[in-house]
Write a structure and sequence with these properties.
There is one protein chain. The protein is mostly helical. It contains 19 helices and 2 strands. The protein has a two-stranded antiparallel sheet.
């Protein structure tokens, strides 16, 4: 049974609290971009790291859907809400979970390094999933209003931005020496500090979050038996969920897959790794500018329409990244920054509504199959995102090695390799934008008109009606 509960009116407090949740997630997750450099340059693992990263994705394959199905099947009554309870438990483990991935033992035997990596990743990923899967599911439970969901999604993007700013801008000045080489021990300490900050962010979110959509089975009702295989089948048939997942995989292949190559081009091509964070921060300006406009833009144009336009902008910027001038790295840096700015504009348009699109996909599951299955839908979405986050960097690292990258050389790759990395970054971002367009423009089928019909059938106000209020 589902109904709207009587609680305080939705407002900025809800949006800020939800943003704090993604800030907490990213305090732990953002350092994952440093993992490849840590394990190839500091721990000297090279291709071993790529192979091990693929191995731990098997854990992801079990971990995400398992946690999601456990949450959906959990019928116990909690003091506040089962989703918030799971988030609280996950946030405890994340205090040290992230640091487990950066235990600094560069002189250990290869087999010992492999155990350290796998054990650390498994511990971190387990706690991250316990916190992140129910956090993503919360968006569809905080409010039924499509504009409220757009606001939550936009503010989640803000939380993500600020969660990335700390490692992106500050850490390069701390964890690299004057020769652009990584100092592994400092990464470990930074991970501990960020884990503690993430815990505080989660506690703020939990305290200020109100669940307005009741999906609990009331006393006297027969609880439907949960079937994980049926839920997975529903997910595959859920076009909005699949489309949003394809787009998210594209986004993370670009963001995570190119991270190591981006670091290398700033080390050995632009010869200044410290400014890499500042350049990436500058590229986030369009996301910050668009976020306050997201709510009104969604009401006027629709989420699918906006996100698809954003993917087209990113594809155009991706083409521009292939304009490379190796004999004038100063001018090349300007071209790189401009193209990154427009790529981020397209990405920002999509990212500010991406989570609201997943909230609509959960509603679509209820519309088409009669069950919501928040945890399972979101956890499978999260699984494929993580697959892109893991497989993408692994494959890119294999390509980097094929193009001459040597981890032992650290920040002193030969010039030909540096140029190859510049082309590889352009190709990765272009592939990312194309995959986003396929997911959003071709597969995702909840355009503005269809979304209004779905909301009407589910007994909710349409997007157009909300826009006139």
């Amino acid at each position: 049974m589902q109904k709207d509960l009587q609680h305080r009116k939705f407002g900025i407090r809800d949006s800020i609290a939800y943003a704090a949740g993604d800030l907490g997630c990213n305090m732990s997750f953002a350092l994952k971009g440093t993992m490849a450099i840590f394990w190839t340059q500091f721990m000297k693992m090279d291709l071993w790291y790529a192979l091990l990263l693929i191995v731990v994705q098997v854990w992801d394959a079990i971990n995400d859907p398992l946690i999601g199905s456990i949450i959906d099947a959990d019928r116990r009554n909690y003091k506040r809400n089962k989703f918030l309870t799971y988030i609280w438990a996950g946030s405890i483990g994340l205090i040290v979970g992230g640091a487990c991935c950066f235990l600094p033992f560069p002189n250990a035997a290869p087999w010992a390094k492999a155990i350290i990596f796998i054990a650390g990743y498994v511990i971190w990923d387990a706690f991250y999933t316990v916190a992140n899967v129910p956090y993503g599911s919360l968006l569809s439970l905080i409010s039924n209003d499509v504009k409220d969901r757009a606001s939550l999604s936009a503010w989640r993007s803000i939380g993500s931005i600020f969660g990335n700013m700390l490692p992106m801008v500050i850490l390069p000045f701390i964890i690299y020496d004057k020769d652009n080489n990584l100092i592994g021990e400092r990464v470990f300490i930074a991970a501990l500090i960020m884990g503690a900050l993430g815990f505080l962010c989660f506690q703020f979110m939990i305290k200020n979050t109100v669940i307005r959509v009741d999906t609990n089975v009331e006393v006297g009702e027969e609880a439907p038996k949960f079937n994980v295989f049926k839920a997975f089948g529903n997910f595959i048939k859920n076009r909005p969920a699949v489309g949003a997942t394809i787009a998210a995989m594209g986004m993370f292949i670009g963001m995570q897959g190119a991270t190591t190559a981006v670091t290398v081009i700033f080390q050995s091509y632009f010869k200044n790794v410290q400014i890499s964070g500042i350049v990436q921060l500058f590229a986030m300006i369009p996301i910050v500018v668009f976020t306050p406009l997201a709510r009104k833009a969604v009401a006027k144009f629709g989420k699918k329409e906006l996100a698809t336009f954003g993917s087209i902008v990113s594809m155009i910027a991706g083409l521009g990244l292939f304009i490379i001038i190796p004999n004038n790295t100063g001018l090349d840096l300007i071209i790189y920054i401009i193209c990154q700015l427009f790529f981020s504009l397209g990405l920002g348009i999509y990212s500010t509504v991406s989570w609201a699109m997943m909230g609509d996909a959960i509603d679509y599951n209820e519309w088409k199959f009669g069950t919501r299955e928040e945890g399972t839908v979101y956890s499978l979405h999260s699984f494929f995102r993580k697959l892109a986050q893991g497989i993408g960097p692994s494959l890119i690292l294999v390509v980097m090695v094929a193009f001459g990258y040597v981890g032992a050389n650290e920040g002193n790759q030969v010039w030909e390799v540096a140029v190859n990395m510049r082309y590889l970054v352009a190709a990765t971002f272009m592939f990312s934008a194309i995959l986003q367009f396929i997911g959003l423009g071709v597969v995702y089928n909840l355009d503005k008109k269809t979304l209004a019909q779905m909301n009407k059938d589910l007994g909710r106000d349409s997007e157009e009606e909300k826009a006139t209020v």
